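Worked example

This section walks through a single chain of length 104. The input is the sequence exactly as stored; nothing has been trimmed or padded.
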Amino acid sequence: MSKWIAACQTDDIEPEDVIPFQHEGVDYAIYRSPDDDIYATAGHCTHERMLLCDGLVMDNTIECPKHNGRFDYTTGRAAGAPVLVDLQTYPVRVEDGTVFIEIG
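Given that input, the structure is written out below as tokens.
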């Protein structure tokens, strides 16, 4: 069963940045795009499970800090070797400055 979880405040994320969020032992990554939209994905790279919150955000792309694998964080699409498996993405909503992600 899915549920909406409060992950952070919009002020916690700078534009073109990523922050970590953990809920019940699961890591997530929360992004703020250059257009000020908020996105959420799984927190680990699908290649070698590195935390994406330590990666580099450029436009709508997150680059893994270990092997420079890239994903489009708006869709989860893997952008080529060494990452070949897409990231899980999660629905996001913002209410009164609080970012909620739908998990489950």
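What to look for: Residues 6 and 44 are 20 Å apart (CA to CA).
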